[in-house]
Amino acid sequence: MSSKLPKTLPIDRISIKGLKSTTDMVVWLMGFVKALDNLYALLRDHIENGGMGTPNWDIKEAKAADVASGDANTVGDLMVKHKTTGVEHLFESA
């Protein structure tokens, strides 16, 4: 799974120097707000889905159900699982 997050905020940096009026500023700021909203939506989806991953690993924070099943010691422990071999690693909270 590759990240859908852009490497930089997709804002129009070049036109900042060309802002000549309050109307120009409002238009530019609306584009900036739209870029921030899109970034926030991607981050929120990621956080609400409970984890992250790479092409070979799934990574998530342990929940109460993981503790109850014995897969984690404490809620919030970092659980890492290799997708191919199924090998799991648990990194305990400090």
What's the SSE blueprint?
Blueprint: H1 22-48, E1 51-53, E2 57-61, H2 64-68, E3 78-82, E4 88-91
Antiparallel strand pairs: 1-2, 2-3, 3-4
Structure description:
This protein has 94 residues and is α+β, with helices and mostly antiparallel strands. Helices cover 34% and strands 18% of the residues. It has helices spanning 22-48, 64-68; strands at residues 51-53, 57-61, 78-82, 88-91. The radius of gyration is 20 Å and the shape is elongated. The model has no long low-confidence stretch (mean pLDDT 82).
Through-space gap between termini:
28 Å
N to C succession of SSEs? HEEHEE
- Order of strands, main sheet, comes to 1-2-3-4
Instruction: Kindly provide the radius of gyration, computed on alpha-carbon positions and rounded to a whole number of angstroms.
Output: 20 Å
Helix content: 25-40%
Number of strands: 4
Beta-strand content: 15-25%
Outline:
This protein has 94 residues and is α+β, with helices and mostly antiparallel strands. It contains 2 helices and 4 strands, in the order αββαββ. 34% of the residues lie in helices and 18% in strands.
Pick out its properties.
single chain; 94 residues; alpha+beta; 4-stranded antiparallel beta sheet; 34% helix
